[in-house]
Design a protein that fits this description.
With about 90 residues, the chain is mostly helical. The protein has one domain: Ribosomal protein S20 (Methane Monooxygenase Hydroxylase, Chain G, domain 1, Up-down Bundle), CATH 1.20.58.110. The chain has 3 helices and no strands.
Amino acid sequence: MPQIKSSIKSMKTDAERRAQNTATKSRIRTATKRTVDAIAAGDAEAAQAAFNNASKLIDKAASKGVIHKNNAARKKSALRNKLQAQNDAEAK
């Protein structure tokens, strides 16, 4: 344990940030799973709504520095490709 007052404060804020970042990443994983589940169920409207929500959460996390911007782009692209594949399959 640190003895210096600034180090003690730093440990406290680090723990708070870590907890917030963990919660944000968990929300992203949940939103991604909901999107994939909606796509698998074949519900186009629900899938689009879930994708919009997931995209919003991913963008917000990237802007706050919780995840890297390239990681955010990769996650959104993968979801978009799955959604587009479902839409293409329904169109045929």
